[in-house]
Each structure stands twice: as C-alpha cells, then as structure tokens.
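Private note to self, pasted from the team thread so I don't lose it. Backbone tokens:
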C-alpha cells in the first residue's frame, strides 16, 4: 500500500502558507516558479511518539496525524504552525527530545535579515492540534555567537542539543530548562 499526502494550503495564492511573506513584493514569473517549487518541500520528518509526524518545510512547521490509518486520507489531521516571528519558516532540520518538545533549526534562505537564523524549541503540551497550551522558547544569545546558517539539530540521551552550522558544531546544555536561557551553557567545536 502507498499513499500521497498533499500539503495543506492557506491564503489566496498557491505556494503561500499562513504567516509566510517571503515573496511579497518579488512578483514576476521567477517568484511564482520559486513559490511553487518550495510549497511541498519537506526538509525534515520526525515522529511525535504517536500516530503523528512533525514536518519541517521550507514554508514552516506542520504537524500531520494519520490517526492510525496512513493509507486513508479521510481522517487525517493537519496543523500548520505559522512562523509569526517565532522562527524563520525555512526549516532545515527538526529534532524531538524525551519530553516531546520539538527543536527547530531554521535559517533565512534569502539572507534578507541578519538575525533570523534561529534555534527554537516548541512544547506542544501533548496536543499538537491545540495551540492554546503551546510554549515557545528562543535562543537569541546563540545568534550573537553563531552568525550564519543552522543546518541540523540533534538532541542526545543526556538532553544536550547539538547544532550543526556553517560555523561548525555547537552543543547546548539548557540545564533541563529550555525556556529559561539564564542557565544555558554551550561549547563550540570547529574543523580544527
């Protein structure tokens, strides 16, 4: 058996996902071609521990739950998480930790802004379809030491967060409190 799951759409124009304004003001045929090409680009897939998957895309974060019937699209549940200044919608990689939190490594694909490459953590409160109990954490201090692209993120068994970037490898110990940056410790490993 096999099944195809088209990504959900939002907004008036094809290729635009809720909250994404990457192509605003670009116009022209090239922008339309690029928008269409990026619409269904999934860069990372991570299981949620149940019947769902976290999807990192070049248009933002999506949760997909096939409700235990992966080949029957009639009961699928899709949840789109608009970036809304929480993260850059160009997601390069996702990871989950033992507590069910989702770690998002993203970057500003067009280099429009200097401070939008980011590492973000989302605690969906065990209910990815209900956003009222979501908690978001950002690591703005990381961008002061890591001025370039974040390409991958992994959480190990000790709950350390490893980030691969164009500046090398970083490890972050959030001390069990990913939403409180005051106790964060980090180390950098470069090619040398």
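Design output:
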């Amino acid at each position: 058996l096999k099944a195809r799951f088209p990504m959900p759409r939002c907004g008036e124009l094809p290729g635009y996902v809720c909250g994404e304004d990457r192509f605003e003001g670009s116009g022209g045929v090239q922008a339309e071609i690029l928008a269409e090409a990026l619409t269904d680009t999934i860069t990372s897939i991570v299981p949620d521990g149940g019947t769902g998957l976290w999807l990192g895309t070049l248009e933002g974060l999506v949760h997909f739950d096939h409700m235990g019937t992966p080949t029957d699209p009639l009961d699928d549940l899709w949840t789109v998480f608009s970036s809304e200044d929480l993260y850059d919608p160009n997601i390069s990689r996702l990871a989950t930790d033992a507590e069910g939190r989702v770690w998002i490594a993203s970057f500003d694909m067009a280099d429009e802004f200097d401070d939008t490459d980011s590492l973000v953590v989302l605690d969906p409160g065990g209910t990815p379809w209900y956003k009222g109990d979501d908690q978001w954490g950002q690591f703005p201090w990381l961008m002061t030491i890591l001025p370039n692209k974040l390409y991958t993120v992994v959480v190990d068994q000790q709950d350390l967060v490893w980030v691969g970037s164009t500046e090398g490898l970083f490890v972050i110990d959030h001390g069990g409190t990913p939403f409180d940056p005051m106790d964060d410790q980090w180390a950098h490993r470069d090619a040398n």
